[in-house]
Amino acid sequence: MSALSPKSGSPADCAVTEGHVGLPVLDPPPTAAPDTGKTKNGEWQPYIVGFACNWCTYAGADLAGLSRMQYPPNMRLVRVPCSGRVNPQFVLRAFQKGADAVLVAGCHPGDCHYGTGNYFTRRRFLLMQRLLTFMGVDPRRFQARWISGSEAPKFRDVVTELTEQVRPLGPNRLWREVEP
Amino acid sequence: MKELHNVNVAMRTLARELLESGTVAGVYGWKKGSRPTLTSPLYIQDAAKADRLAYDQYAVSNLSALLLDHRNNDKKRAIFVKGCDSRGVVRLLQDQQITPEQVLVIGLPCPGMVDEAGSLLTKCAECRFPNPVMADQVLGGVEVSKQPSAPTGVTAEAARKVGVGSRAGERMAQVAQLEGKTAAEKEAYWAEQHDKCIRCYACRNVCPACNCRDCIFDTEKKGWVSKAATSSANAFFAITRAMHVAGRCVDCGECERVCPMDIPIMTVNRKLQQDIEALFGPYDAGVDETVVPPLGRYQTDDPEEFL
Amino acid sequence: MKALAKKNLADALALLAGQATVWVPAKVAGVTRFAPWSPAVTLDLEATPPAVSPKEILLPETESLYRYSAYGMDVTFEAVEQEVPPTIIWGIHSCDVQAILCQDDVFLSREPQDAAYAKRRAATTLVALACTTPGPDCFCTSMGLEPAEHASTDVQLHILTDGYGVEARTARGEEIVARLAEKGLLVETIEPPAKAQACTRAVNPEGIDKKLVEMFEHPYWDELAATCLNCGACTFLCPTCHCFDLTDHRRNAHEGTKIRCWDACMFTEYTVMAGGHNPRPGKKERVRQRFMHKLRYFPERYGKWQCTGCGRCVARCPVHIEITDVIKEVGEVTLDG
Ligand code: SF4
Ligand code: SF4
Ligand code: SF4
Ligand code: SF4
Ligand code: SF4
Ligand code: FES
């Protein structure tokens, strides 16, 4: 498969899809699942997928960037219209595709752009966290946070904290998708 | 079963009348199977076949999901229900998969269902709703009740004797036992169970809560799910299924009964029920059509762990 | 006849496992199915038949066929070469031996042969075990089989009081027997093998393949199908059902692996065509297909029933749609209906 390797996706080109013929542009994250557990200077780095709502958390992340805040580069953000858009399959799919941890983040309750989306998010993921723990997942690997558009420092802290929590856990192999 | 003799006669008479008068286009019930210890689902459209209907302590199948076959059809179908089955019908009504005009629910007294060896099914020992929670008509003197209650009607005594509901308080025993294990043990246990799954979807297809018109697992070409029966894809299926019925599962136990690989699906459903009650307050799905399932509503003061 | 004493069974399996993957009926997470033998495996030779058939050994539920990559016009393919070790299926019953003959018909009897199946089949030796106490849903005798032995196995094991009578039926079988004998694991015996008890269920399929030709539009199917859930329990458990789907394990928009996995005529989307048309739109068409295939099309094409009477579908159909009933009822219905 050497012919393929230079072209295979890496997290860095996550959002980029090259021009091509006849294939869907919107596809699951391009990394081959077994490729995760990236190393930097020979050291394993956690790969974290964050689902961020467009109106608060994503704006908060943007602000953190604009303010040149320093935080670990381990999280790939997926922008969603509302945290209420995140369904259980998003979380599972991220784990299948090699995420070592998943974060769901949105507006503070009461502040959802759509009024009530995140109240449903809260119920859904309070429950799903418990279910995943029941199936042996370390609760640190699946978290949810409310981060508003002005809370850039909170965004920085959450990413930093999550990365540091996951690092000692090592790569997540549970449910990782591999070629049959 | 002698207590049910008159109920059987009444079922056949009623089905015949309903079909002859054109009140309903079809009747869901049971018939005797190939062994005396098997009572299998039956659908009849012809009044002349009403005599094949039979009901006894082996009529374990919940027929409610079969009503989904007619969701695009205006005609009325009659369905015979035990307590647990009636909750399945409420599920379909509440999810607006069928309308009250499409179904005529006939409640039956439940003697408690037994397996072929004659022992009471676990779900029946743990049953809290042995009486229909809704019915347009009843046979055998059974009382409709939306509250957890003791068996009523002609089989009340028989049901009490075999122990229907006697272990209702221990419904979460299997959940508690697994919760007591370490994360590694839990992971190993579920990995072993998920690995067994052959993705036959019997659990989904029998379930009144799995009533999506286009199930995500039938839309493989969209790239979200894999048809591969790998550990990863099987776990994705199991957890997705569980989350999709969370707060809506009516506790009928059919998914676990039909699983050809004997995967303890009810343990997952029960775990979710337990957590829902702890987090959002008591709730019994498929009992009161007017109370929205817990994941479909919220309270501003729900537990907050995401700050 | 040569005999293998029960106490020597583990040694015999260990000896064979030295040079081949030896699949044995075993309890795995509470279910009896075939598993590669190791000292850790819990043998379950009593199950008649094992809940899961040995089909998955020759036709895995999921397998990779080739990898592809497509970047613009730059398209490459690369076959996934599966390692196929020498394989022995130990303790397979007559019904499942017969099922392998059905699979051979499908995958090998006409060109082009199925390469992956052919490779595995060529590496496989069958060691059949006589069935003396049929399970509650067995009816193999009705389908023309003999529970005590099958002519097309490499080795036939017979049941003795304290072991197994060992009879080689092919050169391959001779080889295995010779290896066991060489290690002193076999003795001579004059004990006659146990007789098989009669099958629990009995039906008479004679002539129904012909009758089914006239029954495509018969109202019988409507009633039969009304309670079917269109699940895959019957077909996935069936040792002769062989339908599969070709689909993708996608790594990204450009790269992935073409995989083959079991599919079933009972599934709603099985016959959906590009564009959305479904030639088998309802339960009736799907249920009819399953029984027509087993009892008419397959006999027409290959001259044998595509049901071996193993009873697995009978045992696990959630709504008790039983092929034994179908055979009986098809025999009884009137045709002008
Ligand atoms: S769960 Fe309850 S209502 Fe249902 S069959 Fe058992 S005893 Fe009857
Ligand atoms: S999930 Fe299982 S117990 Fe719950 S409603 Fe569906 S079939 Fe019944
Ligand atoms: S019934 Fe059992 S084997 Fe079939 S899909 Fe459901 S969990 Fe898997
Ligand atoms: S159709 Fe049923 S009885 Fe016949 S071989 Fe298949 S699983 Fe066995
Ligand atoms: S016949 Fe039975 S096992 Fe087969 S698809 Fe129908 S319900 Fe499922
Ligand atoms: S828009 Fe931010 S959570 Fe709904």
Would you give an account of this structure?
The complex is a heterotrimer of chains A (180), B (307) and C (337). Chain A is an alpha/beta fold and 180 residues long. Chain A has helices at 57-66, 88-96, 117-134, 152-166, and strands at residues 39-40, 43-44, 48-53, 75-80, 101-106, 142-146. In chain A, strands 4-3-5-6 form a four-stranded parallel β-sheet, with helices on both faces. A two-stranded antiparallel ribbon of chain A has the order 1-2. In chain A, helix 1 packs across helix 4 (152-166). Chain A starts with 38 loop residues before the first strand and ends in a 14-residue tail after the last helix. Mean pLDDT of chain A is 83; it is low at 1-36. Chain B has 307 residues and is an alpha/beta fold. Chain B folds into two domains: 2-168, no CATH class; 172-296, no CATH class. Chain B is built from ten helices and five strands, in the order H-E-E-E-H-E-H-E-H-H-H-H-H-H-H. Chain B has helices at 5-20, 83-94, 122-125, 156-162, 173-179, 183-196, 202-205, 231-245, 254-258, 265-280; strands at residues 26-32, 39-44, 77-81, 103-107, 137-138. In chain B, strands 2-1-3-4-5 form a five-stranded mixed β-sheet. In chain B, helix 3 links the parallel strand 4 and strand 5 (137-138). The longest helix of chain B is centred in the N-terminal third of the chain and has 16 residues, at 5-20. Chain C folds into two domains: 2-59 and 82-188, no CATH class; 208-245 and 260-332, no CATH class. In chain C, 30% of the residues lie in helices and 23% in strands. Chain C has eleven helices and twelve strands. Chain C has an eight-stranded mixed β-sheet. Chain C has a four-stranded antiparallel β-sheet with strand order 5-4-12-11, with no helix packed on it. Chain C is globular, with a radius of gyration of 22 Å. The complex binds iron/sulfur cluster (5 copies) and FE2/S2 (inorganic) cluster (FES). Residues 197-203, 258-261, 263, 265 of chain B line the site of one iron/sulfur cluster.
